[in-house]
Design goal:
Order of helices and strands: EHEEEHEEEHEEE
Oligomer: single chain
Number of helices: 3
Largest sheet: 6 strands, antiparallel
Distance between the termini: 39 Å
Length: about 140
């Protein structure tokens, strides 16, 4: 349920894995690579990870979410490697008997992922690149 992969992410696979007949809501967060960031045109992103540790942290986030909300199953997959514009980088799927808990749990999970997951993102633009941590540039390199 918690995976770091170089493979393309498929939300339907995760939805089918977490959905049970007791669920009334299935929330899917589908994070995709966008064309613009910080006023620059993004060409592509590169993600790197310490995969074994990242999967452990994803599982810990999942357990944390389940301890805070009465949800069913949760699955989180994060892609690494080079990702093109429009490709999915993160999928969070949460099933729950009720929608509000699923929405709240999903929002919390995504925020925790951005803060503590040991995955590093590099934005590549037309005029350079930068490693990004959370919402902050860490280093910037011109071509």
């Amino acid at each position: 349920m918690f995976k770091v992969t170089r493979d393309e992410l498929d939300p339907q696979v995760l939805v089918s894995e977490v959905t049970k007949d007791t669920d009334g809501a299935v929330i899917t967060f589908w994070g995709v690579v966008r064309r613009n960031s910080r006023g620059k045109v993004v060409l592509y992103l590169e993600y790197q990870a310490y995969e074994e540790m990242a999967e452990k942290v994803l599982a810990e986030i999942g357990e944390d979410v389940k301890s805070k909300w009465p949800i069913g199953l949760i699955a989180i997959h994060h892609r690494i490697g080079r990702l093109e514009i429009g490709e999915a980088s993160l999928l969070v799927v949460i099933a729950s008997p009720h929608r509000q808990e699923a929405f709240d749990a999903c929002h919390y999970a995504v925020e925790r992922i951005k803060k503590i997951l040991p995955i590093w993102k590099k934005e590549v633009w037309e005029d350079g690149s930068s490693w990004v941590e959370g919402d902050e540039l860490v280093s910037q390199r011109q071509p």
